From TrEMBL:
This is ParA family protein. Signal peptide: none annotated. Residues 3-178 form the AAA domain. It comes from Candidatus Acidiferrum panamense. SUPFAM superfamilies: P-loop containing nucleoside triphosphate hydrolases.
Length: 268
């Protein structure tokens, strides 16, 4: 049974897509069959993993609105072991079209049911807003990974998100857990980054991942080449950060369940 993780933060520009793409690629590289689901109408994850725009390609929109099965939409990526459910601009309309639909918050969860036995991990890249697409992802997920940029007001933003997650647990998905809080765009040379990291550790303690994603030029360049960082520059600090995060996510899951994952070769 797949571990389903939503990458979410209501604040934009914190590294959600970068984390979704690169965590997915690093999990697959660690011999963990992984599905990346792009839930954002901007389709940045779809582009960053190497798919050019294609109006004829069926996407998450067709599943949510027309009930098209995921196995007819899924695409193989350039990373062995990593498949993708792509997005496109039509998803913006899905948020409106779903308003009057029955069980509208659970459409994505229903679509994922047929895929759960095929993967160890299903990673969902959420939009930077608490709309119906994000709600669908949070209702389908077992846990949420929250990326936070090490900057001023980061603590305030994540506090609002965690309040939202608590409301979702009470009303829509009682099994939703916090996978962890990930510090992104960290620059150890600046006092601000160090202070924000210290404040977040003080406030959230063990919920903060040990892995930290540094501010890294190669990591920022990789999406424009349609490659995850482990293919674009596997020796960069960004690749190192996401490789460590993947190992930590795998390890945390094994600790929770007391069992190993599907493959005997975890790469850890």
């Amino acid at each position: 049974m797949a571990r389903i993780i939503a990458i979410a933060n209501q604040k934009g520009g914190v590294g959600k897509t970068t984390t979704a793409v690169n965590l997915s690629a690093c999990l697959a590289a660690a011999h963990q069959p992984t599905l990346l689901v792009d839930c954002d109408s901007q389709a940045n994850s779809t582009a960053a993993i190497g798919f050019a725009k294609d109006p004829s390609r069926h996407t998450l929109y067709h599943s949510l609105i027309s009930n098209e099965p995921f196995d007819r939409i899924v695409q193989k990526s350039q990373v062995e072991g990593l498949d993708v459910i792509p997005a496109d601009k039509n998803l913006a309309g899905a948020a409106v079209e779903l308003v009057s639909a029955e069980e509208r918050e659970y459409r994505l969860r229903g679509a994922l049911k047929a895929m759960e036995d095929k993967y160890n991990f299903i990673i969902m890249d959420c939009p930077p807003a608490l709309d119906l697409l994000t709600l669908n992802a949070l209702c389908a997920a077992g846990s949420v990974l929250v990326p936070i940029q090490c900057e001023y007001l980061a603590l305030e933003g994540v506090s609002e998100l965690l309040d939202t997650l608590m409301r979702i647990r009470r009303t829509l998905n009682p099994n939703l857990e916090i996978e962890g809080i990930l510090l992104t765009m960290y620059d150890e040379r600046t006092t601000l980054s160090r202070q924000v990291a210290s404040d977040l550790h003080t406030f959230f303690g063990q919920q903060i991942f040990k892995s930290i994603i540094p501010r890294n030029v190669r990591l920022a360049e990789a999406p424009s080449f349609g490659k995850p960082i482990i293919l674009y520059d596997p020796h960069s600090k960004g690749a190192e950060g996401y490789t460590h995060l993947a190992k930590e996510v795998i390890s945390n899951g094994e600790k929770r369940t007391g069992t190993g994952t599907r493959s005997a070769h975890t790469g850890t």
